[in-house]
Amino acid sequence: MSNGRANALVERIIAINWHAAEDSFEHGTSRAWLMREYLRRAALWVQELQKEEHRPFFDVAQSDRWPFFDIAQRVDPLVRADEEAASRLDEFLSEHASSLLVGRVCRAALNWQSLSEESLAKFPDLPDPFEPLILLFERGGGFWIENGFIDFVASRVRLATWDEHVAAEPLTLLDVGTLDALDEE
């Protein structure tokens, strides 16, 4: 059930050490790869959802929404996170999240986990877009955007339009061993 997934996500976010600066350096490479994977997955969702809307997904009035937007709202405009889970998340983020952007991303991920299986079944071939971001946070907290790049202290990822990320190389394994190996390269 979606409430179970939503509560599990809140627990994961609460367990993150948002002030672990040493992890930002130690896991900089894997965090950059995880961001690229998020961008690729989000771009796949934009590409698919745009087919249904029959108009540009991000027009001039909505240009600020890429790449961190509430994908769940596009899948099902009626989706709402469990009130208790949302309150717990908001309370935690108000004290611990490193930026408003990180808070917005976490709330969008919570809405994603609140989608019904029926809503997700309409898109069986598309991956969970937010898992790479949650793993990124777990490996060293937040990030910021500056001068067209997503910055992680030790690494940066170029921020481009969604269609530039659709064909990016996928990060197919998101396990700790694979991510640690990326950091050792």
Automatic annotation (TrEMBL):
<protein>
    <recommendedName>
        <fullName>DUF4240 domain-containing protein</fullName>
    </recommendedName>
</protein>
